[in-house]
């Protein structure tokens, strides 16, 4: 049976470079998603001479589109052997309120990953690999409040409990008191920490089925920085593809840094980001 890979979120600079590199090294069929159809078909036209690539339009916040993707793969009697989820919300509308920015960010970087996992992980193959793309802000210590850090990193934390914690953050943001309560003022940091927490939850749920799930920091890459060269994104893709294709199976349920090292989630962000 043909190996099947899925790259979610291929429209960003990083996502495109991950997909482009994958087409040169992956032996099998590669599906990829973007939210915008025109973008997706342009990418497919660019890459289809390199490998067996197929575009599927999908919005991680829209359940119907995720189900459509799942049915497309199921109808061909395929299962996913490799999943790279590079989805990320990038705020472009400066007119929205802070609370709305929090809502939109979490709808993608947190709730989107949870819902996607529920709908798509059941069609993963045995021993599949999953890579969730996080970032340097995903270190637990970027959240200031020690009690919040303790609760969110509880190894027995359930999904319902994690959702409740994130709802507390949303409520604090609506009231404008998230800094006072120790969440900090970076929406991206909180969302990346929550994404890592989701990854560890998914690992605990699926590891006994042989599925290897990790999250990765590809480096200090902003999807909005068009000034960055292709070389920067090619470098960022390396750690993602290392986890996807080369890492030993003993690396599972971990946060992996851009230099391929497994990082303790509660590392000091200032030490790790500046010395690694």
TrEMBL record:
Sorted UniProt keywords: NADP, Oxidoreductase
A Pfam short name: adh_short
InterPro entries noted in UniProt: NAD(P)-bd_dom_sf (IPR036291), SDR_fam (IPR002347)
The keyword Acyltransferase belongs to this UniProt entry's keyword annotation: no
GO molecular function: oxidoreductase activity
SUPFAM superfamilies: NAD(P)-binding Rossmann-fold domains
PANTHER family for the chain: CARBONYL REDUCTASE 1-RELATED, CHAIN DEHYDROGENASE FAMILY PROTEIN, PUTATIVE (AFU_ORTHOLOGUE AFUA_3G15350)-RELATED
Similarity comment: family membership: Belongs to the short-chain dehydrogenases/reductases (SDR) family.
Name this polypeptide is given: Carbonyl reductase [NADPH] 1
Species in which this protein is naturally found: Papilio xuthus
